[in-house]
Structures are given as C-alpha cells and as structure tokens.
C-alpha cells in the first residue's frame, strides 16, 4: 500500500487523488493547487504559468522579448509548491523550504536530467 500518491496528469489526475482519498492515502496535486479537492491532498507541485505570462508580456512591452526565452524554474518563480497541509510534519516543510532557498540562491543546482 502506498502512503502518498503524487499524480502528474494535471486535471486528468483528479481521479488518482479521488482514489487516494477513498483509500485514506495522502495525495499530491500538480500544475495548480489542488488542495481544495480533498482533505487528503497535502500539497501540489505548481507550474507558475502566471509568472511566465507576466514576464513574457512585460518583456514584450519593454522591447526585451527574445526568441531565447528565460527558464521559468524555481529560481525564477516558474515552479513551486502549494502551502503544505497540517498533515505534513514541520521538519519536512522546513527541509523542503531549505532546499528551495538553496536552489534560489544558487547554492544547490538540481541536475538537468534524471539518471
């Protein structure tokens, strides 16, 4: 039995979260904050499309648009995670925040590929 289901299918993955909730298993949403769906959703991996859109429009308006667009990664607020639920232990939240801060500062560089 799984303890946590991390669905990676956007809106299609709601069925996975529904099934997890029905089995009293925690779920992690994706793309947008899906915590409103079920109390068992402990956080969501976020794609910050709002940041990408804002930056692209702003660069276009200011004459800085490029056909070599910037990365919209964690260091540039292009991705992130939703506020974790109270079911997530405080030490795990603190550790995730430490990693996020290290990535933003450049002290930690995640690999570009998965081996």
Description:
With 115 residues, the protein is of the alpha/beta class. 33% of the residues lie in helices and 17% in strands. It is built from three helices and four strands, in the order βαββαβα. A four-stranded mixed sheet has the order 1-2-3-4, covered by helices on one side.
In short:
Helices cover 33% and strands 17% of the residues. With 115 residues, it is of the alpha/beta class.
User: How many DSSP-defined strands?
Assistant: 4
Main β sheet profile: 4 strands, mixed
CATH topology of the domain at 4-46 and 73-105: Rossmann fold
Q: What is the terminal separation in angstroms?
A: 26 Å
User: Are there runs of 5+ residues with pLDDT below 50, and where?
Assistant: none
Tell me the strand order in the biggest sheet: 1-2-3-4
The CATH superfamily of the domain at 4-46 and 73-105 bears the name Response regulator
The average pLDDT score comes to 93
Element-by-element helix/strand order: EHEEHEH
Rounded to the nearest angstrom, the radius of gyration is 17 Å
Measured as a percent range, the helix fraction is: 25-40%
Give a topology summary.
Layout: E1 4-6, H1 14-22, E2 26-31, E3 41-47, H2 49-61, E4 79-81, H3 90-105
Parallel strand pairs: 1-2, 2-3
Antiparallel strand pairs: 3-4
Main attributes?
single chain; alpha/beta; Rossmann fold; four-stranded mixed sheet
